[in-house]
Structures are given as structure tokens and as C-alpha cells.
Amino acid sequence: MEITGIYATPGYSGFFFDDQRAIKQGAEHDGFTYEGEPVTDGFDEIRQAGETIIVDIELADGTVVRGDCAAVQYSGAGGRDPLFKAEEYAPVIEGPVADELEGRDAAEFLSNAELLEEMQVDGDRLHTAIRYGVSQALLAAAAEAEKTTQTDVMADALGTEPATEPVPVFGQSGDDRYNNTEKMFVKGVPVLPHALINSVEKIGENGEVLLEYVEWLVERSQELGPEGYEPRFHIDVYGMIGEIFGAPYDRDEVVDYFAALEEAAAPYPIQIEGPMDVGDRADQIDAMVELREGLEDADVSVDIVADEWCNTFEDVQAFVDAGAADLVQVKTPDLGGIHRSGQAVRYCEGTETRAYLGGTCNETETSARACAHVALATNAAQVLAKPGMGFDEGYMIVENEMRRTIARRKREQLPTDAETDEVTADD
Fold first, then answer.
1. The dihedral of CA 313, 318, 323, 326: what is its sign?
2. Is the pLDDT reported for residue 197 higher than 80?
3. 239 with 276: CB under 8 angstroms?
4. How far apart are the first and last CA of the chain?
5. With CB atoms 3.0 to 4.6 Å apart as the test, which of 33, 264, 358, 407 could cross-link to 214 if both were Cys?
6. Per its UniProt record, what CDD domains does this chain match (predicted)?
7. Contact at 8 Å (CB) between 24 and 62?
8. 410 catalytic per annotation
């Protein structure tokens, strides 16, 4: 079935764009926003509304499918593409992108997505958000053309066998780390709570505030969780352990703190995202390898998650090859085409590193659903509940998309009445 039209409509995403450099330089809160001037190119305010481009692909039979362009909350930072402005990029989709893709066979997802991935306009590759959103629509178009699920299309493209149960969903609390986490406990969320530990105040000058919070997690999970509930704690510290302790990261003081985290979380496993942020990829890898070796030598079972400086497919490869993390976050918008996220998850296969299919709160319900299919197709270790920072909505979207897809696949794999009768006659 041919692709007959591609259309781009500017819209809103599920959160906001924040000028990370301005915030790190000390911008103060003004209610929900920030005071002061932005410092990153493209920003008009330090915090401004997140944007998306709604991508509609029309097929020869009149069917219309969707994908949503999205960029991470901290756009324009850490080597990422510039701030994503929908009005600026919509003409690119309806112009050069449409010219390349219209008339192509919608069923050929991988070749279409790879063509998009390599496209250049005026000598530059397409913004990662464009590649992300259009490739989602291409995935949906292929599923429609083949009358199958997006999970099966992605699995065929990657050469995988899809998961038969939902991938564990990872809930993110935002700053409301107590109320939102209690919601997660009541719903039995398997991986939680992120907790947004991004200041000395939140971690404590010696890490004592975070230890108290982890102890609270254990107590409330046992009080509120369903019977048999065994959560995995995942906390993002935004480099704050490095801020309060400093290098080297394999010394006793640092290792002892991780041992205290392990003890506070018992009997549940705990993983720490972004323990330090040292300024570039090579040094970040070295620091995380140093920390992991120190923990291993001391028999401390706290998993380390790569986030800072692990943005692109090549970054994921570098962290995995160096053994720098127990988990790597695959930040879906930063990898461009959605198939690239699937390939990054697959790169972890056969290694000691697990893949966390992440992304950003600043996505949409459409991109979140598309990522649920990537998670199922690759059987990732965990998948982020998104978009937004309210938890409930993102969890519902991702969990339900996986459940309905698994149910559909099971129905379609059941033998028909005619097939059952034929087997019975043969017997």
C-alpha cells in the first residue's frame, strides 16, 4: 500500500523545555517558572512550553496514521540538537520529507525509516525530533498495511521474538517524590520512583537525606503495595553523589555510601542513575567504570545506570563496550528514528549491560505508545512511563498499550474454528 500524503501540524508535548545551562548557573524559581535570562541558543525563556509536530501519514486506501515529533526536556544541551520549534520544522516535513516518502510502499518500514534517518536538507541531517516522529508514523503505517501490530513490525525489522508479558514499567515521580510514589505503590509499579534528586538539599551534605528517603520507600512499599509486591528502586541523582563526595569513585568513602544505600533498600534491589557528571563522555565512562569496579571489589550490589553523556546510538555502544553501567538509558528522542532505539536495546544483548528504554516527560501519548511497542519487540529490561510528570497518565498509556497488544497478538495466534476442525479430523 502506497504512502500518498504526509502532513505536519504543530502542537504541544507533555511537559516543558528547560534551559539546563541557565538552571545550573543558578536561575531561581518564580512559581512554576524561572527568573532570569536564558543562555542556551533558541530559548526565549528559561522554561517554555514543550512543542510537538503531529505527523499524519495518509495511505492509498484513505487510512491516516500518526506519529509525534518530540525532543527532551533539556533540549540544546550536552551535544543534543537545537531547541525544537514546531513552526520552524513543520515545513521540512511537508516539503523534503514528504517528497522522499510519498509513493513508497508503506509495508517497507525498515527501508523507509533508514531512508529518513540518512536524509539531509541543505547539507544537514534532519533534527532528531523529526526523525523520531516521522518514523513512528512509518511504523504505524507499516502495521496498518500489514494488518498486524506495531510490535510485530518492529520485531520483524530487528529480528527479535516479542515479549509475551508486559515489560516492567518504570514510574517517575518528579519533585512530588512522596505522593506520586505512594500512588505507584498502590498500583504495584515494578520499577520506581526516580525521585529527582538534583540538589544537595535533596541528597543531604553527606547523603543522609537520600538514605532516609530510601528507608521510607521500603516501609511504605510494604504498607501500600499489593500482596507479593517486590519493587525495584531506581533513583536518579543527577550527578549529586559525585558533587558531595568527588573522585576517585572507588575509594572507601564512596563505596561505603553505596553499601549504605543497598542496606537501606533491603530486601529490594536498588539502582542509581547518573551517580556523577564529569563533563564529557570519555571521562564519564572512566568514572563509572571506576565506581563499578570499586563496588564489585567490595561486593556491593547496587546497579549503576548511565544517563549523562549517553544520548546517541554511538554513546550507548561506547558505554556498553566499556562495561561502564549495569543499565543504559536509551533516550528515545535523542536517537532519532524509533528503530534506532530498538537497535540500541539489541546492542545490549549478550553483554552484562541491560537496556532501559527511556525517553522524556516531554513526549506525547502517541510517542509513548510507539515506544511501548519497541519495548515489547525487544523485551527491554524496563520502559519509562511517559509523558508528563504526574505519573498516573503516563503509566496508564504505556502499560495499557502493552497489555492490549499482547492480548491482540494472543487472539491472532489462536487457531480458527476451521483449523481446529481440520486437526480433529486428521486425528
1. negative
2. yes
3. yes
4. 40
5. 264
6. MAL (cd03314)
7. no
8. no
**Helix axis angle, 365-378 relative to 150-158, nearest 10°?**
50
The DSSP letter of residue 97 is I
Q: Is the pLDDT of residue 422 over 60?
A: no
* Under 8 Å between Cβ of 68 and 84: no
Q: Torsion over CA of 174, 365, 372 and 225, rounded to 10 degrees?
A: 40
Binding-site residue ranges for Mg(2+): 236, 273, 307
List binding-site positions for (2S,3S)-3-methyl-L-aspartate.
172, 329
What does the domain layout of the chain look like in residue ranges?
A: 2-158, 169-411
In terms of phi and psi (left: phi > 0; alpha: psi -120 to 50; beta: otherwise), the region of 9 is: beta
- Residue ranges of the annotated binding site are 172, 236, 273, 307, 329
Structure confidence by residue, pLDDT tens digits, 340-393: 999 999 999 999 999 999 999 999 999 999 999 999 999 999 999 999 999 999
Residue 149: the pLDDT is: 98
pLDDT in tens, 100-124: 999 999 999 999 999 999 999 999 9
| Gap between the Cα atoms of 98 and 8, Å rounded | 10
Q: One of 202, 331, 386, 410 is an active-site residue; which one?
A: 331
Spatial distance between the Cα atoms of 320 and 328, rounded to a whole number of angstroms: 8
* Structural contact between residues 172 and 179, judged by C-beta atoms closer than 8 angstroms: no
Helix 128-146 and helix 109-118, axial crossing angle in degrees, nearest 10: 170
Bridge partners of 33? 30
* Residue 343 φ then ψ, to 5°: -65, -35
Confidence band of 78 (pLDDT split at 50, 70, 90): low
pTM of the predicted model, to two decimals? 0.95
Cell triple for residue 372? 511501548
Distance of CA 308 to the CA centre of its chain: 13
Q: What's the rounded Cα separation, in Å, for the pair 357 and 385?
A: 10
- CATH match of 169-411 with 3.50.50.60: no
Rounded-to-integer distance, Cα 412 and Cα 421, Å: 17
33-34/29-30 β-pairing = antiparallel
**Residue bearing the bigger pLDDT, 77 or 158:** 158
Q: Which CATH architecture has domain 2-158?
A: 2-Layer Sandwich (3.30)
93 has pLDDT over 60: yes
Q: pLDDT value at position 80?
A: 83
Least Cα distance to 190 among 408, 343, 380, 330 occurs for 380
